[in-house]
Amino acid sequence: MKKRAFITGITGQDGSYLAEFLLSRGYDVFGLVRRTSTVNFERIRHIQDQITLISGDMLDQTSMFRALYDIRPQEVYNLAAQSFVQTSWTQPVFTGDVTAIGVTRLLDAIRSVDPTIRFYQASSSEMFGKVQEVPQRETTPFYPRSPYGVAKVYGHWITVNYRESYNMHASSGILFNHESPRRGLEFVTRKVTHHAAKIKLGLTNELRIGNLDAQRDWGFAGDYVKAMWLMLQQDTPDDFVVATGKTYSVEKLLQIAFSTVDLDWKNYTIQDERYMRPAEVDLLVGDPSKAGTKLGWEPDVSFEQLVQMMVEADLQHLKAEHKL
Ligand code: NAP
Ligand code: G4F
Fold this sequence. Notes:
The chain folds into two domains: about 5-180 and about 220-240, NAD(P)-binding Rossmann-like Domain (Rossmann fold, 3-Layer(aba) Sandwich), CATH 3.40.50; about 185-215 and about 245-285 and about 300-320, Alpha-Beta Complex (UDP-galactose 4-epimerase, domain 1), CATH 3.90.25. The protein has ten helices and 13 strands. It has helices spanning about 15-25, 60-70, 85-90, 90-115, 145-165, 190-200, 220-230, 250-260, 290-295, 305-320; strands spanning about 5-10, 30-35, 50-55, 75-80, 120-125, 170-175, 180, 205-210, 215, 220, 240, 250, 270. Strands 3-2-1-4-5-6-11 form a seven-stranded parallel β-sheet, sandwiched between helices. The protein has a two-stranded parallel ribbon with strand order 7-10. Helix 1 crosses helix 7, helix 4 packs parallel to helix 5 and helix 6 (about 190-200) packs parallel to helix 8. It binds NADP nicotinamide-adenine-dinucleotide phosphate and ligand G4F. NADP nicotinamide-adenine-dinucleotide phosphate (NAP) binds next to helix 1 and strand 5.
């Protein structure tokens, strides 16, 4: 009999890669989708006939309960969140409701329907915020710097708490930034690669950007979803940092993206206060050695390959869209 996996956030970047990965492993894949006035299935359209979509919302516990009751999955991956850090300052309560309390709604629905279900929580390197140690590992204390980061700390600890209180197989992946051609346009990597491609094609002539000095440990989303799955295949639930161990500045990202299309980023980039944050996370770099040793996980795609892949994909999309 096929294993059944339920993914919240299936319409997002990671949800789409995870659904592909689980299908390739022979799973029946189910995904939670919230009601929107226009359909937003771009990232899963190519696999839509192979998966089952269930209507629901992280704010509505009855919809989770019903989904779990109907599907009876062996594995649940909680990827749904208000995931954009900047928006968490303008919508702090909503962010907390979805990204923090939503985790409790889901964990408690699992506890009621079938506590043997294995659970994955999408924790985040944003929890390290004002970092207390370099590199950051599973034992590094958290110091979140945004309402999003605070919400993720709650989601992380409620996952630990359900594991310890009810002996549930609940694991958290503390994932550092991971990107892809499917990344939302508001995140800095995709914003930069999309603009580099647009400028190259003569569709715009400037890129407005915020802090150039921030450093991130950026990996490829396609590599990271495998780590999520590996966590749920272990005998014992646990928490794992998933990262590349290397860090780059936003300025370095600009250099690589623009040089991919033979342009100098300095000629097109304008710093704009609107993209600065009330509190910044200056430096993230993870130590993925526990994931390497216990899960046998390591990333395949380098930062340079990732940025080039994203610029090339944006060039192709824009050429098709504008019939160039
Ligand atoms: P994403 O592209 O923003 O996807 C978020 C998903 O959550 C979307 O499918 C979205 O649905 C769904 N969602 C939001 N609010 C919801 C609600 N109230 N009810 C049901 N679904 C809701 O994020 P991602 O990059 O794939 O990240 C996946 C998860 O990993 C998130 O929890 C994120 O916080 C976490 N994370 C991401 C990174 C990273 O670098 N990408 C790193 C660490 C942790 P719609 O399509 O309807 O908006
Ligand atoms: O791409 P970002 O918006 O990602 P951020 O804030 O690191 O959050 C992402 O990674 C987290 C993991 O650490 C996830 F949990 C979270 O869900 C999300 O996926 O910004 C990266 C850096 C920041 O320091 C920001 O200040 O880039 C800087 N930046 C500079 N200019 C900009 C811009 N960020 C954005 N989005 N837009 C700018 O114009």
